[in-house]
Design brief:
It is built from four helices and four strands. By secondary structure, it is an alpha+beta fold. The chain has a single domain, classed as 2-Layer Sandwich (Alpha-Beta Plaits), CATH 3.30.70. The longest helix is centred in the last third of the chain and has 14 residues. It starts with a strand and ends in a 7-residue tail after the last strand.
Length: about 110
Amino acid sequence: MKHLLFAVFENNSLTNDIVHELSKNDINGTVLGSTSLKHMNSNIEDDELHFISLRHIDKLHLEENVTFYAILDEEEIDKAREIIRTMSQKFTKVKGGMFVVPVESYEGSF
């Protein structure tokens, strides 16, 4: 069975090292820049929160995180989680978190 590993890291110098180490260990996935709603909402006036449009995003200073996700086999999940745990020192050196969910079905060449 395949599983989806989803991890979010604050963007700092160690984050790139984690992603590089995953790649060196044949853990292939997707990396995206992201921003938490907490940081996004702190830059918007309360009366503007009914709907967030591109106009609001243009005014924001977005604090970047790095989001990583990958569909992996059981053995790969264990290896990836250990790499992330070790290199982030259990998320003390690189703030963030991760979770895994089973993938019931998928299409493609993951």
